[in-house]
Amino acid sequence: MKVRHYSIFWIAIALWLFILSVSVTTSYAITVEAGDRAPLFDAQTLDGEKFILKEHLGKNVVLLNFWSVFCRDCISRIEALNKINDLFSQRAFELVGIAGDPPTDRMLSQVKKYAAKMHYDVILDPELEVFDSYGVEIIPFAVLVDRDGTVVVAIQSLEPEPLKLISEAIDRLTKE
């Protein structure tokens, strides 16, 4: 009988330690969805300027494009995003790339290389704080935020059809 209680005790301890380790190491981020309030953030742009999302809301519709130099799909969508940015540049619209790459000189060099091809600002998020606040787990990931700070579109792919959906939403929102 003593052996049985002893075994149950150690099983209970092992289970508790396992649960504790999972709760400490697991991210419980929930991906933002249409209708959610966009998490506010401030971050440094590649040019060293401070980007504060709250300062852009109220006057601009903002498209946040989460990407990384490691993501071939992200890199292949630069031209399509440039076209969207150029198409709506004369309206109350802003496109911002958010690079989630490690803060090494080599990675910064790669980010700069690709950012030079972009017609829009790039924010550095080396600690993935902005990624985490939006629940980004898969890239490319795009979030369109209206002037009131509400997420209108959140898409984990930037294939032609979702890009068309984003363009239509930008067109509608910037005409209002």
Q: Key features?
A:
176 residues; alpha/beta; Glutaredoxin; two-stranded antiparallel ribbon; 43% helix; globular
Tell me what you see in this structure.
Helices cover 43% and strands 19% of the residues. A five-stranded mixed beta sheet has the order 5-4-3-6-7, with helices on one face. Helix 4 runs parallel beside helix 7. It contains seven helices and seven strands; from the N terminus they run αββαβααβαβαββα. It starts with a helix and ends with a helix. The protein has a single domain, classed as Glutaredoxin (3-Layer(aba) Sandwich), CATH 3.40.30.10. A hairpin with a 5-residue loop joins strand 1 (42-44) and strand 2. The protein has helices at residues 2-25, 53-56, 72-76, 78-88, 105-115, 129-133, 160-175; strands at 42-44, 50-52, 61-67, 93-99, 121-124, 141-145, 151-155. The protein is an alpha/beta fold and 176 residues long.
